[in-house]
Amino acid sequence: MSVHVRYETPEELSDKIYEMIRINNNDGRIKKGSNEVTKAAERGTAQFIVLAEDVNPPELLAHIPYICEEKGIPYGYVPNQEFLAKEAGLPKGVNTASIAIIEMNRDASEKMTEIVDDINGIKN
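Given the sequence above, the corresponding structure tokens read:
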């Protein structure tokens, strides 16, 4: 497991996270990239943070889970930067190490509640 990954994420959970991003993409606002995500976490404006597991170097994201835990912001992992960027609506060929969902529509918010319950079950 990489230095920034705090728990093992089953594929089913990663799929739910991708689905939440897709559901929210047309309505919600996101920040992408480690700098913007760090700022959103520190300011407490993020509703949910998604981190890619295949980041190189992994130290790029190592601080974000700690900030999330300190601020009470839920976070989850997906296996791939490229798919994360695609689901976030970024142009083809662009990768992103992380995204912060700032605004979430009702459907995505309901999906997030389900995801957070699953994550809490894994972490405990």
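Residues 51 and 77 are 5 Å apart (CA to CA). Try to locate this feature in the token string yourself.
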